[in-house]
Amino acid sequence: MKALDKFLDNAMRFLMAIAMGSLVVGGTWQIFTRWILKNPSTFTEEFMRYMLIWASMIGSAYCFYKDKHLALDLVKDKLKGTPAMCLSVFIEVCILTFLFVVFVYGGGRMAISSTNYSPVMHIPFKVLYIVLPLSGILAILGRVLKYIQYFSERKAGK
């Protein structure tokens, strides 16, 4: 289980690093071509828009995986005992349902049925849209791994 956890962590961090690095390189290239060569690059704006989407979607999956996502704990912090546990389970079920329906199912349908191409780079929008089911699967996998670790620790008495 720890090996899968480490692999998932490293894979998401690698994808985020690639996306963020490409944003830096793309931005630097755009500045260089615009100010030094006086001939702005035509594809970098679109490329950087796609990389920003990829970075943010993989980053959001990583936040869910690390349990560092934005949460409103107004009610959750006031509850104790069984009601708090029931609310936590309800929240987790809602999150997993949302991730599956919107990201995995909806994003997958969108990626499969997309027939358009980007106007400048001429790549299929499927390449852009595939990040939705990918980030949804990564977030769900991360949450499920956390549940397994939590319950195995509780069973072991830690």
UniProtKB/TrEMBL annotation:
Key words of the record: Cell inner membrane, Cell membrane, Membrane, Transmembrane, Transmembrane helix, Transport
Coiled-coil intervals: none
Main location: membrane
MF (Gene Ontology): transmembrane transporter activity
Single Gene Ontology BP annotation: C4-dicarboxylate transport
Protein localization: Cell inner membrane
Record's bilayer topology term: Multi-pass membrane protein
Keyword Nucleus in record: no
Family, as annotated: Belongs to the TRAP transporter small permease family.
Record's protein name: TRAP transporter small permease
Organism: Lachnoanaerobaculum umeaense
Organism lineage string: Bacteria, Bacillati, Bacillota, Clostridia, Lachnospirales
